[in-house]
Amino acid sequence: MSIPDIAAQMVKNDSSKSSEDNARTIILVGSKSVGKSNLLHNFLDKTDTPRETLVLEYSFGRKSSQKQSIDKTICHVWEYGGKLEMLKDVLTSIPIEGKFFYCVMVDLSKIKAIWNTLETCIKAIKEKNNEPSDDIELIIIGGKYDIFKNYDSEIKKIICTTMRSVSLVYNANLLFYSLKESNLLRKAKEMFYTIGFGNNVTLKEKNTNFMKPLVIPKGSDSWESIGVSESTLEHIKARHLSRITSETEIKLEVKTIQRSHPEPILDSLAALKYEELRNMESYDPSIDDYLILLR
After folding, report:
1. What does each C-alpha distance from 293 to 77, 267, 276 come to in angstroms?
2. In what helix (H) or strand (E) does residue 74 lie, and over which residues does it extend?
3. Residue 216 in contact with residue 174, Cβ under 8 Å?
């Protein structure tokens, strides 16, 4: 069985104990090394240090009902950390339980990779579900705002115009986030809590000023407010690429793995396997290989 199949079986066994109304599914995809794992760890109140997600990670959270402790809301959380070109194939293997929230997180500090990340992630969910529909809540998150806020004002305006336009076309919620800014971390964590254990996305504030972190609930923006004519995705793409040349994310340098085993030889083997996985064009490991890396 593949890793997604095994995880799907775990979800199925867990979900059999709860009703569809009490289930939530969150899928978080996007740029590498942008802080997806850290955000999910904060949301789920995990205390361990998150490790880099090589392909696909599954976790879950439970919350008891205030009225009846036996009745629990289960939130299934999936994080994809592999190559974006493989995303559409991975999405078909992820089981959806209850309300579905699809979160795309882009790295605002890498402005030339923003369009590729947005386009690839949105096209992947479109191919899985034909079009984003009322059954899918789309959330676009701009990560590493602590770096982005220091960029030239014209660059910030272009990026914010693009992200607002894409969000408007797909009726998505939009917010900017940074692990290093406590107020932005709090807002993102609160939003994830409402989608994980509440009924819908709740963004208590709204800001459309590109000089500040964007917070825009779906349905609250307009083309007039953005300052451009009504556009399709292709129009937005052409406008964006006429100002900022796009490129795929640059391959990250392989980091040295910290020792985690009593025997040094195991760390050496894990490091070799890690480097091999980072250089592979596709990734379809056996479950035994994957578990070795997780130990």
Report:
1. 20, 10, 12
2. strand 72-80
3. yes
DSSP 8-state class, residue 231: -
Q: Is 104 in contact with 67 (CB distance < 8 Å)?
A: no
- On whether the CB atoms of residues 17 and 60 are closer than 8 A, the answer is no
Token pair, residue 84, equals: 């974006």
* Helix H or strand E encompassing 122: helix 114-129
3-state helix, strand, coil in the chain (%, to 5): 40, 15, 40
**Structure tokens of 288?**
């035994």
Which one-letter amino acid corresponds to residue 168? L
Q: What region, left, alpha or beta, does residue 98 occupy, with left being phi > 0 and alpha being psi -120 to 50 degrees?
A: left
Q: Tell me the pLDDT tens digit for each residue of 159-210.
A: 999 999 999 999 999 999 999 999 999 999 989 888 888 778 888 889 999 9
pLDDT tens figures, 97-153: 888 999 999 999 999 999 999 999 999 998 877 655 556 889 999 999 999 999 999
Tokens of 269: 């083997």
Residue range 283-295, pLDDT digits in tens: 444 444 544 454 4
Distance CA 246, CA 236 (A): 13
